[in-house]
Amino acid sequence: MRFIKFNDSQIDSFLYMELADLAKTLSKNPDLEMEYAPYSYLNPAENKIYLTHFWDHRPAADQISGLKSDVYLHAAGSVFHTGMEETQNFILKVQQLSVKEFAKQLFIILESVRMEEIIKKERPGTKKYFARRTEMYRRHFRSQLTIHLERNIAADALFNALYLKLTAQSPLETIPALNEDFERMLPFFQRELEQAYESRSTAETAGIAYRISEAAEEFLEKDMLNTYFFLPEQGYAENSGLSFKDLKRMNELDNDDTLELDRKEERDVHDQEMPTWHRETSKATDSFLQYDLEHGSKTDLMGNGLREGEDGDQAMGTVQGSSKVSKQNKYDQSEVLENRQDGDRTGDEFTFGKENKFAFAENLEPVKPNDQDKISYSENKAAVSHYQKKLKQMIRKTLEHKKTNPRTNLHTGRLGKNLLRWVTDDNPRLFYKKEEPSIQIDAVFTLLVDCSASMYDKMDDTKLGITLFHEALKSVGVVHQITGFWEDTNEATEVRMPNYFHRVVPFKTSLNQSTGPEIMQLNPEEDNRDGYAIRHMTQELVIRPEKQKFLIVFSDGEPAAMNYEQKGIVDTHEAVIEARKRGIEVINIFLANGEIEESQRNTIQDIYGKFSIIVHKVSDLPDVLFPLLRKLLKKSIQGG
Q: C-alpha distances in angstroms, 314 versus 143, 175, 458, 614, 634?
């Protein structure tokens, strides 16, 4: 269970994934998103449920109960049982009140009570979560009521008191009198609250909330100071798009003159310029710019009959297609030798995950190794040579054993000694063969290396381990690629997040004897968007013809990139699951220097499950990688 730091609080990433799945299941909406925020609510416009930080810093059982009650309340309640149009009408109606915040928050608690009863009837197992939720809120509002009464903050005190009365288990619980005017209205408030449990629709709940707020307005001098519950003012309209009425002109032109049109002067195509016309011009042209709509003169273009549509019509023409990043070379970055990869977004669906919709790939090819790279690589190669030789010998023996091991129970070949099956079996297999044809390892590997800044003290030892992988795979003829990845923090913006893939050893040259020194060009860079990188490598491995496909991810911590902190772990976990569903075995090599925290260990398990190897001392990486590589290659041989 890895904890994501957010607003100085910690979020259990495994619990987050569990709650996200629960929300999608309850709402029957696979695209419903979930996020932590100061307040809990459903935002239909964003198709998102927010869970409140109110449950933070509590015992684990209380925190889980609170968070699950939020999910049940919105995913099983608000989605199906809250009237969007009625809610929007209520929001508009209370704008005229001086205590509109009081009215909106009162509406939320009344509607929550109504939905709780519906959910508990449909799902009795939720009663324990809602009971714990109510108990924690009652404890909080009881303390808030005491503070607000002492400070004479009437609106907040009234709200606290109404919640306590609404959720009271005993009829003896009363609402404290705030002043003389309020005391006269107590019977009215109590009758209205009693009707809340009998409410059958959002409209009835809105009516109760409005009547109480309207009455309270008479003696409340100020609106509420605190926000306990939040009701978004946007997103509850049934039709959020523009209507035909919205598209019609609602305002008059600045001018009230009329321009005579000479039909002969109308043109379909502008050669070098696109003119416009307004009050000061002498004749009209075919432009339809914003200035024309506000400052132009009146014409009979759309008034005295039908206007024939044409292909060149600037106003009526439509273009079909999707927006894409330019494929022209970026000359401001000479090291980028391949064009930017497009296709990250297809229509409304994002191939590389919703959290990465503004990310795009930049491919970097390795430059020609210099003398220092060659010297460093030779030293690494010498350091792992004994592992490479042992591995190669193991592979050779395994292949020879499989070639010479007799194959029995065949329809053709040499006749075996056991002929009893000729009598006992309908379709006897009496023959055998002494050896099989030559066997090759039908596998492909991708080594994905985290090149984030945190790898600064681990990169040299990591290169040593990668050298072992490369030389071992090359010696037994297994195609592979080695790619470093990172996100450029300095260039990243809210809508543009460049992610670099430094392909130091590509598939096409991985078996060349001269390849290898390029590995020394991997260096610690910036951030790491792991889910995005894993999806890219998955896409490349899927189209490979080999039967066994492996993705080995070298990293030293959780994902960290722009707007990726809160959902990075979940997004990476989903990327791993997607890869495994497509037949790719994803294995993580977690690099640490010394002992790691339990939370870090659990993070890796949250993302990769049991397919993660933790290396406590990076210098021991070859000792750890050797048995892993041997196991994977044996599996590939047996699978072949």
A: 65, 66, 59, 62, 65
Question: Helix (H, G, I), strand (E, B), or coil: what is residue 574?
Answer: helix
Question: Phi and psi for 614 in degrees, rounded to 5?
Answer: -100, 125
Cβ-contact 531, 568 below 8 angstroms: yes
* H runs (alpha helix) in 306-458: 371-383, 385-404, 421-424
CB 441, CB 550: distance < 8 Å: no
Distance CA 445, CA 301 (A): 66
**Mean pLDDT throughout 305-320?**
41
The pLDDT value recorded for residue 400 is 60
Q: Who wins on pLDDT, 401 or 623?
A: 623
Over residues 467-473, mean pLDDT:
89
Tokens of 540: 């490349």
Give the integer Cα–Cα distance in Å for 26 and 115: 14
- Note whether 34 and 19 are within 8 A (CB): yes
Could you tell me how far CA 522 lies from the centroid of its own chain?
28
What distance in Å separates the CA atoms of residue 295 and residue 279, rounded to the nearest whole number?
7
51: region left, alpha or beta (phi > 0 left; psi from -120 to 50 alpha): beta
Residues 184-227 have pLDDT tens digits of: 777 888 888 888 888 899 999 999 999 999 988 888 888 999 99
- Residue whose entry in the numeric block shows the structure tokens 């200035």: 291
State the pLDDT at residue 415: 66
> Is the Cβ–Cβ distance between 479 and 510 less than 8 Å?
yes
- The CA distance from 406 to 584, in Å, is 31
Specify which residues 479 forms β-bridges with: 444
- The span from the CA of 214 to the CA of 219, in Å, is 10
Helix, strand, or coil (residue 414): strand
| H or E, element range at 20 | helix 13-27
Q: Assess contact for 467 and 501: CB atoms under 8 A.
A: no
Q: Is the pTM of this model over 0.70?
A: no
The mean per-residue pLDDT over the stretch 283-288 comes to: 47
Token couple for 589: 């090599």
> Helix (H, G, I), strand (E, B), or coil: what is residue 478?
coil
Q: Which residue has the higher pLDDT, 275 or 421?
A: 421
Alpha-carbon separation of residue 481 from 8, 49, 321, 376, 418 (angstroms): 40, 41, 34, 20, 49
Structure tokens given for 60: 């684990």
Q: What amino acid occupies position 128?
A: K
Nearest-angstrom CA–CA distance, 548 and 1: 31
Read out DSSP for 456-477? Answer: TTTHHHHHHHHHHHHHHHHHTT
pLDDT at 439: 56
Q: Is 103 helix (H, G, I), strand (E, B) or coil?
A: helix
**Six-digit token pair at 106?**
């009162």
Residues 409 and 199: their CA atoms lie apart, in Å, by 75
Q: What average pLDDT does the chain have?
A: 78
Of residues 495 and 638, which shows the higher confidence score? 495
Residue 279 neighbours by CB distance under 10 Å:
12
